[in-house]
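Re-run with default settings, no changes from the original entry. Doing this only to confirm the output is reproducible before filing.
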Amino acid sequence: MPERKPLPDQAARDLIERRLDLNLLVEAGAGSGKTESLARRMAAGIAAGAYEIEGMAAVTFTRKAAAELRGRFQIALEKRLAEETDATRRDRIRQALSRLERLFAGTIHAFCAHLLRERPVEAGVAPGFSELDETADAEHREWAWRLYLDRERAAGSPVLRDLMDAGVTPPDLDGAFRTVCTYAEVEFPPGEGMAPDPAPAWHALDRFWTALNGCLLRPIDPATTCPIQKKMRGFAGSLRVADRSRPRVLADLLAEWEGGLKATQKWWHPSPKEKKAAAEKVEALVARFQDETVTPYLAAWRQHVYRLAMTLLCGGRDFAAKARAHAVALNYGDLLERAARLLREKSAVRTALQLKYRWLFVDEFQDTDPIQAEVIFLLAAAGATERDWTRVSLRPGALFIVGDPKQSIYRFRRADIDTYTRVRQVIETTGGQVVELTTSFRAVPALCEWANGVFPHFFPEAATPQQPAYSGLDPDPNREKGDPGATGLRILDIPETGLRADVVAAEAEAIARFIHQAVIGGAGRWGDFLILTRKKKQLPVYARALEALQIPMEMSGGAAFAESDGVRVLASLLRALSDPGDTTALVGVLRGPLFGLSDEALFRHREAGFRFLLTSPLPDEASGPVVEALRALQVMFRWTRTLPAPAATERVLEETGLLAMAATATLGGGEAGNLLHAVDRVRQITEAGGSLADAAAALEEDIESTEIDAVPLEPGRRDVVRIMNLHKAKGLEASVVFLADHFGGVKARADIRILRDGRRAVGYLPITRPFGEWGRHLLAEPAGWADHEAAELAYVTAEEHRLLYVAATRARELLVISRCGATGGRATRPWEPLTPYLKDAPILTVRSPVAVPALELGDLGAEARMAAQAARDEKRTQAAAASWRVESVTGTAHRGGRPDERPEPERSREPDTGMAWGHLIHALLEHASRAPHADRPHLERLARWFTMEQPELRAVIPDALEVIGRVMASDLWQRAMAAEERLVEVPFAVKVPGNGGPATILHGIIDLAFRTADGWELVDYKTDQVDVESLVGLYGDQVRQYAKHWAALTGAPVKYAGLYSVREGQVTRNLMEE
């Protein structure tokens, strides 16, 4: 085996495992083993005795990452144990492995919840608080917002009234309310904007309009292409009917003249010599009107509306927070904020928690937010007095952070690159060190070289506030370069077509064909391929293309749940079942895919005098497809009234065959997964106190949303093609990665600006009304928003460059980037910035399509379902038959000895307290055997403890102690205490073949076993009130069984096996000789 070459960053990797006294921030490039370095650091600390597993806490970005880290940590420990030769270090590792469950490994939210549950009183939270996940939090937030608005409306709120007068409705504020709640710790000052005086603006508008019309030499031609003239044609009617008593009308009219408006020369003057001057005159007139009237008036008006809106929004946010407190529920933001406040304000609590969590390990730190950083740094601090986390002194070796600032891509979810930079500074100024890992174990050398040639153009040489400096990727020197014909970079050329939808469909088909040909040709597995898009809108197109070729796939982040036909059918059915009087919903179900009844059949049914009601009885003699469908629906309706809603929904899916058809229709099982997700949604709503009608309404809302992810039928399958949008690909990799959806980019825009100064955070955002997919109409904005927007756009643009880096570094062997020459209209091309660096890349070869036989759906009829159920019942019956049985040695011995045939032995007149007496004697003898030096007072205290729950035995404790004393004075006891090996109360179990039936697991407990030079001696204590010979008759076979199986288990001879009557103080003869 060739000697391994040293890694370019080997010194950094050695430092991670050796300098356990240093606080480290590891900046690890894509594929360089961030999580592995974290696990190895943890294992190294355990082996060195620097860490104890109970004092360690590992914080990850997701629950899945936490499970992966725990597994890697265990593997790292086991590997060190196999390689370690030092006995002390091996013992430390063994102890850590045996107590692995004591390690905290979870998300930052789970960690904060853990801290709050440890100290609920000091944190000011109820001990039994519930945690709201993102879905539950969104539902609670929306409910609280609607309730708050209703109360404000009922109270005659002047703010709400003025907002309505300004043309802003409560639904217009839904998005802004979501934003201010996401940034719960941020102040949003409403400003002091007041409504501007409209009179001067009206006069200016009239003068402008008159002057503009004076520039026309003739009426506007309907065919004009001049933007200003087209604006004039619509504006004339609006101005004519405008209500001049309403300020919002003036604002709407002035907004028509915002933006850059150009005059087309030929439409303003017929003379070639005069048309330029005429157009310039018009443009100057418009520009002057904009500068003098439109811009200043609208700025003042929007600041006025912003003050009203933000006052209402902050009031709603406070109301929602109080509603959560009343419900004893905390969302993710509450968990972080309460934990940070607990550590910041309660120094005694912080000290105690610092002693408990002495070593903190944080993964994927590049996407942290300020509150997360505060929690981590206050716990890692050397003291508990400093309340500003940026000024704390860190305990040496208490903090180990891993991240890659080049992969910080979650600014829209509170990730803050400024916070990361601040953390970097704190680590360095408090004696810590920043370490870089550059060796990529993921990408082939060709892809590393390409990335190093591209991304210095997107990242600065020296870090800026918005962007870290670029650090190159070093290929693993021990990895083969790979086949140039199958690795590296490729271009997927998409044919130019007229419609963007056709481009996406053609691209999806080409990708599916390439994957199909590669796998069928033996060049890979389905799980080797990953399809990435910038947005999730088009993901279902790629999923359908893969399913058309029967390629198993798993889609994450797409809107397939909303587009699921099965979920739509189920939602409609539940709506009809939840309200038996809703004839419209019922008719919709009858006409839909479940029954497919024609309008003619429904009409004939109604003409026959029947009603479309689930509660309307149907005569026994009635027949026909509509009647049969209604009878089936009435059965389902009864289920919803007699079963819990989730159980009724599952039975409906089984009865209708919806789930079976969805599961067999495609190899990916996406449709079936969506249906099961719908059942979970029903369960979630009903467990929260909702009805079936509420669950149906929630499903319908989910269908209208694009935020609900599709759920695969079998989550976690490995051998499937994965499809997802780029933000879902965090930490993922694949042998072949496609950067798809050439026109599916996102235009950079600033939605919010947060300014942080120490503990204080101030936020500003525009309030807009959405229209179309990405359009928005500006309703309000704070003073100075233009400057805030420009500053934020610099951060957003920098993050777009980081997204490119993440996309380009997912591939292990082959990266395929789509390219299309079509214009795509105004669509943004997400991979366009990479085009200049694709000049030398070969074109991906995709052969002609191949014919794939259609999937054959099985028979889903009633008879087929009954036959399948019968087959399942038969298998279940066979599986339920006993394949083994359990029996004690005592039972076997008694059955073999036929105790029923013996005469009842004569009992003595000594104390008899039944089985409890026997248990007490056995417990005392066991303790005395394990502690030979125990004296009578010690045994008496122990006896009182044993009899705590059986006070009737207290009276016989002296008798028990006398018995124990006689046993301990016997020759047998002395011989046992002097034996080289002694075992007490030894349980055992053996498997013995059955006599024509199932095997038997034979088990028993040997009271005393000790080994002498001649072999093992086995003794069974008996407390029965019978003579010794009677004991032999009752239990002789049992002891002989013990001896037989003991010899087989130990491989050593049994010299003696007998009984000891503790009441008589006598040992039986050796029963092995009989």
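The first strand starts at residue 24 and ends at 28. The CA atoms of residues 193 and 260 lie 26 Å apart.
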